[in-house]
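Bumping with the actual sequence this time:
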Amino acid sequence: MLKKHKTFRSYQEQILFMRERGIEVPDEQAAIESLSTFSYYSLVNLNKHLYGGLDLRHFAGDPSIVDLQLAHMLNMNFYQTVLKGILYVEASFKTKLAYLISRKFGSASRDDIDNARDNYLFRGYYDPRNKQTTGTLRSLRNKLKLLRAPSNIHSYSHHFLTGNRQLPPWIFIHDVEFGLAIQWFNILRKHDQEEVLKKMLWGETGYDDKAPLTEDDEQFFDAALDILRQYRNIIAHGERVFESEITNALPELSLFSILPESVLSQEEYDQGIGRNDPFACLLAIVLFTHEPILMLSFLTELQSQLDFAQLMKETMAPGSLDIHTLLGIPPFTMERLIAISHHRFGELSRAFFNPTRRPEPS
């Protein structure tokens, strides 16, 4: 059976096709510049969900090409800030993981994962019941070998390895992909996993080593980390984020056991808010952030992007959809995220987000 193929269309034909679908194109020269910059696919196909859905040929509401351009540009800008927050969490997770491995298993490695001498990749340190243990350790070993290759000559790790020096976990972890780092965590023995998990949930200095973890804690951690990984990969590849592509979700009981009161209602969760949507991604970021400067910086950047989005909408396309709809987040997003910041950092956070409460400079 022959597969259907798409027909190439010139910019003029693309404009005609857009008009046939109910998209207004008042200025053809400006439209050609837009199509040659963002592409028809980015402007039209990736915005179908905003104007009637994927199954409708005609765009509901008769948007203009400027409306579509605005939606695409604001999404790309906003989610680059979200990506920065995910990278903060990734760095924190990797640092805590490497710290535990270095402290308990040492700072040297060998190619043979069955050799216990000076080898933090020794199979015996990890969970023997996990079927993924051997495969994950081999992947890490192969990653180390790859770093020795000439193709990585500009890598900091490469200089360590080719200088006849061992690559300790706290340096190696920077070259380990987020997904592989999560797999590395997953093959740890349970008590080692719990140490990293507690520090991620309550901070390096805020956790109680003797306090037991609940099943809800573990479920939230696993789901939140996987959601961040999926959002990271989508955004990093320049793609638009659609929650239907996110295969995991924050479990209801686990999420409400972690969240401070009034951050999310049951009714909102039942509507899909905080499950695997962008708001769930943002919740995971702030709940894993225990450094106040990082929290205040991230939330300030998010607010700045929303302010910029509102200004662009008012200037370029005042009749367009509201910015929260364009970005796929609820209107109360910043209010609720700042509430988590207040809960975690108290007076410092309140003073930062309420300039009238800041102390006068001496």
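The tokens above came from a reply further down the thread. The chain has a mean pLDDT of 92.
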